[in-house]
Amino acid sequence: MASSSKRAALSDGDRERYHRHMMIPGWGEEGQERVKSARVFVAGAGGLGSPAAIYLAVAGVGHLVICDCDSPELSNLNRQILHNDSRIGMNKAESAKLSLTELNPAIEVDAISTRIESENVDDLVGDADIIVDCMDNFATRYALNECALRKGIPFVHASVWGMEGKLTFIHVPDTPCLRCIFPGPPAQEVFPVLGATPGMIGCLEAMEALKYLAGVGENVKGQLLVWDGADMEFATYPIRKDPKCPTCAGSDA
């Protein structure tokens, strides 16, 4: 659960816009105030980043930081719903900012058009309360995982392939880190993906982040949630710390 000490006062417009949130048991005005005060770093504005960022924005996260160095291509538009044909060639982070501020002009959105690397990740993430991993490569994911560990903040990880998606909520020392779960990166490839798959999993990423920020519900800690869209089945698998993990071994349990 995020710290309850960070709370931004709600306006009358906020109370109307987020009224249905505040009806949720345990959410109320206090939960929405925590969401409004939050800063969320969204790594990637593609297939996963699009639905994740959209639902974080319309939920009233006060400050979204969207980081992506790429530009939309026509082949992206089956799933990257922050963008459209007129944005082809524009930086994805800048395109995302246009879409998100149109959806919710009451929030602040920063667009960063820089590649995330080990050398700059700490500065890019800054004082974010949580990292949402919407990347498509493990080199960047490992850098984000290590940043989250250094900063002591949660890291929502997800990935997709075809009609299947995976999700977990990482917060060392309460959970294993990403390197415990995936000791080495899979081979880089151009993989199949149905647009609705990152739509589904990106929404779940937003759900995990919002629950944490508002202090409602339980996150997917110590488990890997797997969704099989072909058969419409969910399954969860326990994940454990690797005592020899080069990233988190020695962190306090």
SSE order and pairing:
Blueprint: H1 12-17, H2 19-22, H3 28-37, E1 39-43, H4 49-58, E2 63-67, H5 92-103, E3 108-112, H6 121-125, E4 130-133, H7 138-151, E5 155-161, E6 164-170, H8 178-181, H9 196-214, E7 223-228, E8 233-238
Parallel strand pairs: 1-2, 1-4, 2-3, 4-5
Antiparallel strand pairs: 5-6, 6-7, 7-8
Helix pairs in contact: 4-5, 4-9
The beta-strand count equals 8
User: Helical proportion?
Assistant: 25-40%
Q: What structural class results from the helix and strand content?
A: alpha/beta
Main β sheet profile:
8 strands, mixed
Task: Estimate what percentage of residues fall within beta strands.
Answer: 15-25%
How many individual domains?
1
